[in-house]
Design a protein that fits this description.
The chain is α+β, with helices and mostly antiparallel strands and about 80 residues long. The protein is about 20% helix and about 40% strand. The protein has one domain: Ribosomal protein S16 (S16 Ribosomal Protein, Chain: A). The chain is globular.
Length: about 80
Amino acid sequence: MVKIRLKRMGAHKKPFYRVVVADERVARDGQCIEEIGFYDPLKNPAEISIDAEAAKKWLGNGAQPTDSVRVLLKKAAIID
């Protein structure tokens, strides 16, 4: 199954996440199918940038967002 999830980047104690589309069997920071955005929780307020068109395309194709990505998609007003 294809999932939309977060891929952790950044230095130790300075996390930065990419929102990626990946097969659920692949490791968290492993190979991804497509990068559709990023999330920086350290900025105030947290910075969220997701390509709405790509996210809707993958959701329409059956990709399932993880719980944390679902919250980010709602904050970015991509899903209700």
